[in-house]
Amino acid sequence: MAAFPNKPVLLCLTFTAILILCSVLSIAELQQLEQELKADGSLSFLVVGDWGRRGGYNQSEVADQMGIIGEKMDIDFVISTGDNFYDDGLKDVDDPAFDDSFTKIYTAPSLQKQWYNVLGNHDYRGDVLAQLSPILRKVDSRWVCLRSFIVSAEIVEFFFVDTTPFVDKYFTEPKGDVYDWRGILPRKHYLSNLLKDLDLALKESTAKWKIVVGHHTIRSAGHHGITDELVVQLLPILEENNVDLYINGHDHCLEHISSPHRIQFLTSGGGSKAWRGDVDWSNPEEMKFYYDGQGFMSAQITETRVEIAFYDIFGNVLHTWATSKQLYATV
Predict the structure, then answer these.
(1) Residues whose CB is less than 8 angstroms from the CB of residue 280 and which lie 6 or more positions away in sequence, other chains included
(2) Could you read off the pLDDT of 300-317 as tens digits, one per residue?
(3) Spatial separation of the C-alpha atoms in residues 305 and 282, rounded to whole Å
(4) Segments in the chain below pLDDT 50
(5) Which of 260, 41, 21, 314 is nearest to 155 (CA)?
(6) Quick count: other Cβ atoms within 10 Å of Cβ 11?
(7) Model pTM greater than 0.85?
(8) From CA 303, how far away is CA 301, in angstroms rounded?
(9) Residue 224 annotated in active site
(10) 103: which residues sit within 8 A by CB, 6+ positions away?
């Protein structure tokens, strides 16, 4: 059975210790968590991003359908692709937005599993250390939020990457927004360590499937489009290490773009406010699916197969995709 939210499984350190370390270290060490598989060796989960609006902009409707699909799939956990609290993150650990946008919204029994969260750019406009604080886990035991980390589940490893510090304009052209860069500066050192640690972790991984999760897009036809800094700095590492999926939010849509280098780019940023009609992509062969409304994504994984699906706020399946890998006998 999957690990339940009140029983987090860690390799070496207690969960509290890991969260404290992540909030004070100025280097980007990748902490590792363990996620158990189902008895049949499979794993299933949901992905939602860009959601924290106190139920507004159809956030509650998306949450309701997540609960229904989550029950049907018997999900093991939920991934959030960031921008967890709008517009400016959390003010502190006592901010009622945590309860109003998370605990009181995702109430379905099937969603009472661990939520693995990355930070988005809007989260960095608030008190970042609040979202990383172990205090929030005492408020709601589902909450798992670190800067960059690994979730290992035998057949698959998830590499969660803190993408906001890569984006130059947040430092050079903040446009009146105030970002909380505690733990990030000096930025060059932070990013160098993060990329080095990620590259090493991917190279050492023996998992059948490698999935990288970040907030910002690498390839997208949505409002934000391509994130140049990630194309230059992160994408070559993903390609070199045969990553299967890159899952992100940031663009408020649902999207699937393929690539000749194996990687599938999946955007699940439709957790609340969406941007209708904001799409631009020049290569129709790569664009497998685009939906400019609210919704979420699901995934089912076995040792030999990955299946994904995208849903709207009514629970309709908008797009599916699957791929398989052969099993090789060991002598």
Answers:
(1) 221, 225
(2) 999 999 999 999 999 999
(3) 30
(4) 1-28, 330-331
(5) 41
(6) 11
(7) yes
(8) 7
(9) yes
(10) 139, 140
